[in-house]
Amino acid sequence: MSPGTSTSRAAARVHGLGWSRLWPQWRAMLQPRDLAPDAIAGLTVALTAIPLSMAIAIASGVAPIAGLITAVVAGVVAALFGGSAWSVSGPAAAMAVLLASIVEEHGVAGLALASLLAAALQLLTGMLGLGRVARLVPLPVVVGFTGGIGVIIFVGQLPRALGLPAPDQAHVVDVVTHIGELIEHASIAAVGLALTAFLLVVVSGRIGRKIPGALLAVITATVAAEAMGLEVERVGPLPLSSLSWPSLHPGDIDWTALVGDALVIYALASLETLLSAGAVDRLARSVPHDPNQELVGQGLANLAAVAAGGLLGTAVIARSGLNVAAGARTRRAALLHGVLVAVLVLSFAPIVARVPLAALAGILLAIAVGMLAPAELVSLWRQSRTEAAVCLATLFTMVAFDLVVGVRVGVIAALAIAAFRHGRTDATVQPIGEHGPYRFTLRGPLTFLGMSRLDELRAALPQLQGPRGIVLDLAEVPSVDVSAGDALAPLLSDIERRAIAFALIARRPVLEVLARHDRDGRWAARVVADERAALRLLGAAEALGPEERLRDGVARFQAVARDRHQALFEHLAKGQSPHTLFVACADSRVSPLLITSAEPGEVFVHRNVGNIVPPPGGDDMPAEGAAVEYAVGVLGVKQIVVCGHSGCGAMAAIAGGVPPGLPSVERWLGFAAHVRDRVPLGASPEALARANVLIQLENLRRYEVVRAALERGALTLQAWYYDIAAAEVEAWDAERGAFTPLSPPQAASA
Ligand code: ZN
After folding, report:
1. Is the residue at 567 inside a domain?
2. Host domain of residue 607
3. What distance in angstroms lies between residue 499's CA and the mean position of ligand 1's atoms?
4. How many A from CA of 609 to the centre of ligand 1?
C-alpha cells in the first residue's frame, strides 16, 4: 500500500492498485453488520451462477468446470478488488462466441495465453487511470454487438437443444440451411427438456428478478430426466483432479494472431464490464463506480481465474442485478457468491453431473433471446435512424461473417464514430431576446472538420442588424487546431469590418490561438468571463430585463435538451431515484448541480438561507424536515450532504447581527445562532460556515428516519464546505477532525 500512497501525490492521474481506497470497505466486510442480507444475496446469486457458468463454458467451447472455476476465482478476486461493490463477476455470455472461435483457431492453450495477455492489459489500463477510455464505444455498436452475439449463441445452441452432437462452431448460415435435416434427427426428450428450461427462465424473468430461473430450469429438467429415465447427454463428472494447464510449446504459437485476439478480448471484456458496472450503479442507486478500480479488479480476477484453469470473465449485468435485488449490502455478497459456488459444486457434484446438456442449452437460448433486446433497438430507432442503422449493420456483419472479424470491424466502426463525434462542431446563431445582441455559439472541438461551421457564421453576418452586437460564445470549445485557428481570425475581422460590436467568451486554447492573430490587443479587450459580462460590455445589460433573460435561458435549455438529452428526459419523466439529498445555501453563487457535475435525477436539492436543518419539532413550518423525511423515507437516498460556503451572508449576519427590518431572517437564523459557541470569539464567517454544517449534521441525526437509516447502514452524512473563489470543495474528515479538499491535488502544470 505504501508505494501507492507515496506516488499518488506526484502524479494524481495514475490510479495504481487503489488498495488504500479499498481498505475501509474491506474493514466493513469483517464486521458482523449486514452479514445476513449479504449471505442471502450471495446464495441467491451462487444458485443462479452454477447453471449459467456451466452453460456459458459449453458455449465458449471449453469444459463446464472451466466456467465454474471462473465463477469462483474471478468472482472472489473481483469482489475484493473491483470498483463497484455490487458487481458480480464470472463467465459472460457476451464473451462466449469470441472465446469459442479462439479455441477453434488456437486451441485451449492459445485461449489461455490470449486471455492472460488481455487480463494484464486490463490491469495496466486501470492502474494508469485510463479506465474511461473503454466507455467511449457508442451505444449503437454495443447494442449491435450484443444482439449479434445473441443470434450466434441462439443458432449455435439449436443443435444441442435438439439433442444432436454440436458441430464444431457451426456457422450461422450452415445451421439455418440445414435446419430441416437437424429437426429430422432431433431427440424428442432433449427438445422437451430444452423447451422446459427455456420457458422457465423466460417466465421467471417476467415474474421478478428475485427468482433464480436458471436454477429452477436445471432442477426441473434434471428431476424430469431422472424420473423418466431419459436417454440424453449429461454434464458428466467434473474432473477437478485432472485440472491442469494446457501444455504450451512457445515455438508453435502464432504470436501475431494471438496478440490480435488478446486485444479483441481485452476490448470486449472491458466494455462488457464497464457497461455492467454502469447498469449496477443505476440499479443500486449508488454513487458512480470507479472505472479504473473496476479494471484493476477485473485484471487481477482474470489473471487468477485463467491461471487456475478457468475462462476469462467479466462483470455480468444479470447476476449483478440479481445481487442488488436480493438485498446485497457490501462487497461481501459478491465474494460469498464465489465461495458458495465452490462449496455447493463440491457438495453436490454427483447431482451436478446428472444435469442434461439440453437443459443448459435451453437456458442459453433464453439468454440469447434476452441479448437481442428488441426494446432497446426500437428506442434507438426512435431517437436516431443513423444510430439504429449502425446498430443493425454491426449486428448483421457479425452474424453473416466470422465473429472475430465482426468484432474487429465493430471496434473500428466504433473508433471512427467516436472520432467523427469528437470532431463534430455545432454552430448556431440566435438573437438574445427581442432587442438584445445575437449569440453566435460554437460547441465542440474546433478542428478542420468543423471549419465549414465558421463559414456558416460568416455567411450569416450580412443579414444581421449590426447595432445589436454579437456575443461570440466559444465557452464550449475545448480545443482548436491550427487550421481552424486560422479561420477564426477572419471571422473576427469580418465582424469588425462591418462595425459590429462584439464580446468573446472563450477558453484558454482558443484565446492562445487568437492571440497570434491579434495585432494590437484589440481582441483581448473584447474577452469576457461569461454572458452577463458580455451583455455589459455591449451596453445591452439594461435592454434585457430579468424576465427576458430567464425566457432566453429556458429556450436555450430546451434546444440543448432536445439535441442531446432526449433519452434522459424521457427516462426522468417516469420518476426520480436520486442517490443524494443535498442541503445548500440559497446564495446565487452556490450551484449544487454545477459543483457536483450531477445530472438531472441524481441529486435531491434543498436550499435555504444559511443551509440550516432545524432539529425535528423545533420549527412550526418544517420545510426542511419535509425534505429530509421525503428524501430518506420515500426516495431512499444513500447520503445527505450539507454544504456551507465562503462569503455566506447568513454567517455574516450571525457574526455581526441581522440588518434591521428582517424579522423572518432574525427568527430563521436563531436555529443556527449557537454556532457562535463552537468557534473562538471574533472568528471569521468562513469558520462559522464550517462549524455550522457540523451542527446541521447533529440536527439531522435527531430525525427518526435518519437515525433508523444510519443504524441500518443505509445512509451516510457528509459535511461540505465550498470555497467559491478557489472552486474548491472540502469535506469534513472525522478521523482528522478537519475539513480537507475533496479533489486530489493536481499536477502543478495542469
Ligand atoms: Zn450562504
Report:
1. no
2. 575-741
3. 43
4. 6
